[in-house]
Queue: 2 jobs
Job 1
Amino acid sequence: MAVFDARGPWAIELPARQGAAFHAVVAGTCWFTTGDAPAHQLGPGDLVLLPAGARHQLSSDPGLPTRRFDEGLKRSLIRPDGELVLDGPGARTRILCAGYQYATDVTHPVLGLLPPVLHVAAAHPDSGPWLRSILDLLAHETRSRAATGSGTAALRLLDLLLIHVVRAWLDTEDVAMDASWLKGLRDPLIAQVLGVLHERPGDDWTLDTLAATVNVSRATLSRRFTHHVGEPPLTYLTRWRLDVAAHKLRDTTLPIAAIAHDVGYTSEFAFNRAFARTHGQPPGRYRRHAATNRQAESVRGSTPVA
């Protein structure tokens, strides 16, 4: 996460990156462009999220020649306090920027379902004030890098910011959405079912026990869940369990048998077979490859975010 402080005229191009990126204007204005779409002006409190890290441009005015934002430019702009400063004679703009890293071999449960660009305006009557409050706190934590817990606080605020951006998008009346668990959240019954499955993936669920938990018939549960989510409840549960297992294999040192048990498999052999069928390799090899890739990424360094 960084603060980009620039005075016009300026224009930078940010290359495509693995993971997501967002930019939030905290003061002044700027123009945002991606792909063949026309330039869009952002004002204070406006935020854009790029769930798949698409290549894009930010500028003080549309049509200016861009400078590629790479490590060399980043080193030339960064100040001792960590801010990225670009001096000029024109108007000042401050932008809070950050990236979300996630494994590309497993579709992110939220970001993978979103459109290439989400724009949330500060003028939105419901979400705008909340987003502005979170952005103010994020800006404060970014300025207070040396303060105790500032890094942890900033990460948690980023998570909270993502939640509110997705909420704002879901609340948009004309949003078009394919069947997915995210669409399921708009149906109160399916949202309840998803909450139970996400919270307790290791339980011994059957269609009967799941229907009883939410007080509907098996037929109603199966019909509504499949309509909104795009697959039957137990098929979704199997995929969710294996995604949770993949995250645990990458991010923890828990034994494979313990992970299998946590996600509802009583047999490690059955878990290994199901995991290999979904992810193309058994859990042990998946964990070793993930560790190797993480080390290689650490050596290379990630693509900078302005």
Note: Residues 300-304 have pLDDT under 50 and may be disordered.
Job 2
Amino acid sequence: MSSRILTVPNVLSFLRLLMVPVFFVFIVVGNDLGALILLVISTITDFVDGQIARRFNQITRLGQLLDPAADRLLILAALLGLAIAQVLPWWFVIAVVSRDLLLIVLGIVLANHGYGPLPVHHLGKFATFCLFSSLPILMLGEAFPAVQGVTSPIGWAAALWGGFLYWWAGVLYLRETVRVVRIPAREPDTGSATLGL
């Protein structure tokens, strides 16, 4: 893994981070089409930077921080913006955000016990995909009210399913964290723990 900073994937991830506040403002002021366009651009650049990083061996430590940070902040901005615009209820936003707070706490616990973050579970990836997919679908209905009768049930189905899986994955991460931090007490001679879900 490289420690380089100036790579194409890192630049794309940084640009995605810069788009987050603009995206949030667009949603809040009711510029639904502008917000939708930014969300599409962000999704495309997210896919492209991952492809470039793998194909041209440009995976970096900074990139591994920037990429998920941009994803999380974009989802957070979309959730908050859509809640302020009264498209999403606040209970849904709180449910999703509280799960992310749980993972932050688990990360701190793992770090205090000498471990890095847990590997990303495929369930968590699918949950994020569902949530990420639901947002542009719901925003499409806001930008073009004529299609809202179709986009609203599809978007909400993806959002609710994603939220459920998001917490299911969170419970698995919690269980694995408990297992890992207990390993040194049971196996004092073990140099490191194998993290796997």
Note: The two ends are 23 Å apart (CA to CA).
